[in-house]
Amino acid sequence: MTPEQADAFGAELDAIRERVIADLGERDATYIRKIIKAQRTLEVGGRALLWAGVLPPAWLAGTAMLAASKILDNMEIGHNVMHGQYDWMGDPALQGRNFEWDSACPSDQWRHSHNYMHHTYTNVLDMDRDIGYGILRMSEDQRWVPYYRGNALYAFLLMVLFQYGVALHELETERIRSGEISVADKKDTLKGIWGKVKKQTLKDYVAFPLLSGPFAPFTFAGNMTANLIRNVWSYSIIFCGHFPEGTQEFTPEEIENESRGMWYFRQILGSANLTGGKWFHIMSGNLSFQIEHHLFPDIPAHRHSEISQEVQEICERYGVPYNKGPLPQQFMTVIKKIWKLGFKPS
């Protein structure tokens, strides 16, 4: 793409953003309030059913409802609100800079590692720490070391413990392992992580089970299972939006003096969409439209489905690949990549 083409490409995408921002209003406010109401209803209903967990149908229903509420809280509410997508409403409860979510990761740390570092330096090696989360080898350009023989195992552990993996994101464990920094250098970060992990642990595994009285074991197991479901789902959606076959990584040198149009270009090449129905998109936090999210992270995510076809048409005109596919297909390519990159290059 020539500089002139990149500028024209960027101008067309800027026009989409400006049009959507100008159109924000009551239907967007109504949408997020309905989602919040649904999330709270699912949580209250799920926790109530877990108190009757001695009956298997009640336990299964309660666990499913609680898992759905946690997914909505993390994906469609927390993630999107913390991007500032609803700051324009002026509602103190929906201000991105103050929002706290139901996750082990402190929201202030998330806003730095995700909103700033990841969305500014998307898929740039040694700058975007979402490439492998400091744990995995997710690019052939990452230097292989014997540690990566455990790539598949680390990926599985990250999946089932995802909220804790995200919580440790800002700790920069790879820099600690290499000796570049020490644990003492991250004292304040660790303090924030421990405070949030402690709060979440007490809520899910102490307070609510104790409130259940003799049914405490059922509530404990339900909370643990709901968190596991949320972790696996979040991991699957996020990894399928960033690492399936066809997505690309970049070097710091490649983004020097990057224009707005080339920034857009990089966001698209480093992202992938997932196809599905309305409720699939809602439960994914509309991160099933990862391309549009990377292009316009501050636009309410439920709007991404409305502009995705237009974005795809622009990409087609400029010869830019637009990666999309169903979740199972994309996830299989992610698994293959994780497995392959664990072996020493020949």
From TrEMBL:
Fatty acid desaturase domain mapped to chain residues: 58-324
Residues spanning the signal sequence: none
PANTHER family referenced in this protein's UniProt entry, alphabetically: ACYL-COA DELTA-9-DESATURASE, DESB, FATTY ACID DESATURASE 2
Protein's name according to its UniProt entry: Fatty acid desaturase
